[in-house]
Every structure is written in C-alpha cells, then in structure tokens.
Amino acid sequence: MTNTIIINTVRFILLVLLQVLLLNNINFLGYVNPHLYILFLVMYPFNTPQSIFLLVAFLLGITIDTFEDSGGINAAACLVIAFIRPALLRFSFGVSYDYQTVKLSNTAYGARAGYVMFIVFIHHFILFTLEMFDFSHIFLILKKTLFSGIFTTLLVLISLTLFKPKRR
Amino acid sequence: MQQIFNFLIRNKNNILFLLLLTLSLFLTIQSHSFHKSKFISSANAVTGGIYNWANNIQTYFHLDDYNRRLLEENKQLRSLLANTRDTASLSGALDSISLDGVYNFMTARVINNNYSKINNYITLDIGENSGVQKEFGVITSQGIVGIVDHVNKRHARVISILNSQSRINAQLKKTNHFGSLVWDGKDPNIVQLIDVPRQAPVEVGDTIITGGRSLIFPQGIPIGDVTRFTLDQNESYYTLYVRLFNDMTNIGHVYVIENEEKEEIKALEATND
Fold first, then answer.
1. Taking an 8 Å Cβ-Cβ cutoff, which residues of chain A contact chain B?
2. Percentage of chain A exceeding pLDDT 70
3. Which residues of A touch B40 (CB under 8 A)?
4. pLDDT digits (tens, 9 = 90+) for B221-253
5. Which residues of chain A neighbour B21 with C-beta distances below 8 Å?
6. Lowest-confidence region among A115-129, B51-65, B140-154
7. B67, B171, B229, B233: most buried by Cβ count inside 10 Å?
8. How far is B177 from chain A (nearest CA, A)?
9. Contact: A27, B118; criterion CB under 8 Å
C-alpha cells in the first residue's frame, strides 16, 4: 500500500514538471499542446476509494493551474474525469471492472484505446470550453479539442506501452 | 439527525464532487474578470522558483540571440546619440529641470511565457524586493509586452498583451487618433486596435505607438504596423489589425517601467468631481 502511494507521488511530481516545463512549450502549429499529465488519472489505481481519487484529481488540476495562471480550468476538468471514471471503466472493460480484476496493462488494446480516448476528449472539451468561457467560439473550442486531443491520446498510449509494468 | 448523517455518508462522493467543482468554477470565473485572480498565480515562491531554475538552464541556449538584440539596440541608441548635434542644449536643459526623468526603468528576465491560450500571462524573475509594483509597464527594445498585475517578494506576474482582458491605449504615429489595443485570441503576432474614429486617415503599413493617455507606458513606444483594417457595423469606428514588431513567442529580457508621477496624476483625477 505504501509502495503505491510512493509510486503515485513520484508520478504526480514528474508528470506535473514534464507538463509545465516541457509540454506547455511545444505549441505545435501555434496552439497544439499535449496534456500528458492526465496520464496520472488514467493510470491511478482502480481500487482506491472514489473520494480520495476526487481529492487527488483536484489537487493535480489546481497544481497545473497554478503554474499556468489559468484559474481553475484544469481542476474542473480533472475533477469531472475523476467523477465519471468508474462509469467509463465499466463501459470500456465491461463486467470485469465490477469484480476489481481488471489491470490496465493486461486489457485488450482496443478497449484500452477507447478508454483513453474518452478520458482525453472529455477532459479537453471541458478544459477549452472553460478557457474560452464563450460559446460563440465553439469552432475554436472544437478545433483545439480535436488536435490537442489526438496529440494527447497518442502520447498517453505510447507512454502506457513503454512503461508497462514488468511481468514477474 | 441520523437520517441526515446517513444521507451525507451515502452521497459523500457526489457532495465532495460538487463542492470541489464549485470551487474550481469559482476560481475560473474569477480568473476571467480583470485584476481579480490573486489566489492561483504562478508568481509564488514554489512555481516561481521552479520556473527560475528551469530558465537558468534555457538561457544559455539563447545567449547568441540576446547578444544580437542587445547589439542592435546599442546601435540604435548610439546612432541617436551621435546624430544629436547640439549637446549644449541638452546640458542646458539639465539646469532647469530635475535630472531624474518621470520614468524609471528596471531590467528583468522572463522565466515563463505563454502565448497559445486566450488569457496569457508572463512571469518575471524580479518582484517587490526589486521595487516592482502592480501596474508597471513591461516592454522590450522592440515593442510592448504587457502590464504587471501581481507581485510577491521575488517574482512578478504580467498580463501579456496577448490576453483577452488586456486593454492598452495606443494611437497612430502620424496623427493623434487613438484606440484600445486588444487581442482576439487567434494569432500571437496580430493584435487589434479597436475604437479608432472613422475620421482617422488609416492606411496599410501605418505604425502604431503607445498613446499618451496611459499612465503606464511613456508615449511613443512602437507597437506594430497595420496589416489590414475594417469598419465596424455602425460604420463609425475602425478596427485595425496590427502586426507586432515584437515577437511575443520569443522574449528573453525585458524592461519594467515605473511612472513616478502616476500617483500624483491619479490623485488629481480623483479630486475632479
């Protein structure tokens, strides 16, 4: 248990630093930035109590917001993801989630990609909507969601494949 | 009572979610209203320190570029100095007016710069300890950058001109028609000068400079040139699209400007009722 806490703390710090120091400066085509830090929410252990997960997600979002001077937009987006993750897991991996037997590293590739895409696109849509704060910019919101979302999804899937836990 | 507790315990996740969501939406809304977002700011000791540390490393890779810019600015100032023939008139002026100008300049380094969002902020490596206060102007040798909106001991946060809440007084160089400089959030090289009266003789290629109505910037700092312009719906005001001289995606060192007479002028205007 303590092992899990240490791993997740280290992952939290590393992903935040990677996000604010490197990934926020990519600006591909002027505005496309991947938000890889939500990998933390994707990988967070499935069997922890939901209330703790909500608090951790809020903390993650507000940390990113502090670095980016963006108010509470990342916090809100992360919070929504944390709230709907159980439903997304049940939807993507079916009944095995209910028996707490599912591990992200040994799920089918298609189901895993679907799960990641749901999380990424919902997160990005909320993020950019709150950033613009104006539905007259809906096309800009959708454009940013689409391009940044594709970028983030690819990075998340690549990271999941690269950092697969070793089989013992 | 028992039932209330049972209800709270059964719905603790939903209640927690709603509570935190309200908090984050509150912070979001606050950040969208000008000069309000104080709690969540990159100008605090931890985030400022981390940005400072990372920037110390990055600066080495840009040294060539900074040197080139400094040389160019030196060249400009030198040619200005060499072409001022009558230095006697300059020293004569020193007798009657005080040596210190109205504006004080400080140098600072940009340790964090955003330009891909709608509301962009810049973090500087100097703060209250170096004399920086709110509403000081920030410029580079090529143009304007923004206005300081939040300071702590060792860092300052600047509202970039690439921020939808930024409104800076600017005017045409050739006439004195002025307007407000805003940004529509699309291209980090193009800003908009709105509310320019229709009488202004605007042409593509005209230079835009800071206006004299602002207490923050000295008059006459170059901003950019006009690439195109449109009339608004009522056909009474122009919107000018201004290409910035300053590359906002690549700012290294900046000057922070203090207007010493700002308080005096503000006090004078406040009595005017």
1. 17, 20-21, 24, 27, 30-31, 33, 50-51, 54-55, 58, 61-62, 65-73, 75-76, 79-80, 82-83, 130-133, 137, 140
2. 92
3. 62, 65-66, 69-72
4. 889 999 988 888 777 888 889 999 888 888 888
5. 76, 79-80
6. B51-65
7. B171
8. 31
9. no
Q: Which of B11, B15, B26, B28 to mutate to test the interface with A (most CBs of A within 10 A)?
A: B28
Long-range contacts of A110-119, Cβ-Cβ distance < 8 Å, separation of 24 or more = A112/A157, A112/A160, A113/A153, A113/A157, A115/A42, A115/A88, A115/A89, A116/A42, A116/A153, A116/A156, A116/A157, A116/A160, A117/A149, A117/A153, A118/A88, A118/A91, A118/A92, A119/A38, A119/A41, A119/A42, A119/A81, A119/A85, A119/A88
**Average pLDDT of A110-129?**
91
Q: Provide the number of CB pairs (under 8 Å) joining chain A to chain B.
A: 107
Q: Give residue-wise pLDDT tens across range B247-258.
A: 888 888 899 988
B119 touches chain A (CB under 8 A): yes
Least confident range of A77-91, A100-114, B25-39, B185-199: B25-39
ipTM of the complex: 0.82
Q: Report the residue of A50, A62, A69 to disrupt the B interface, i.e. the one with the largest count of B CBs within 10 Å.
A: A69
Those of residues 32-61 in B touching chain A at CB distance below 8 A are: 32, 37, 40-42, 44, 47, 50-51, 54
Residues whose CB is less than 8 angstroms from the CB of residue A138 and which lie 6 or more positions away in sequence, other chains included: none
pTM above the 0.90 mark? no
pLDDT digits over A54-109, tens only?
999 999 999 998 888 888 899 999 999 999 998 888 888 876 666 666 677 777 78
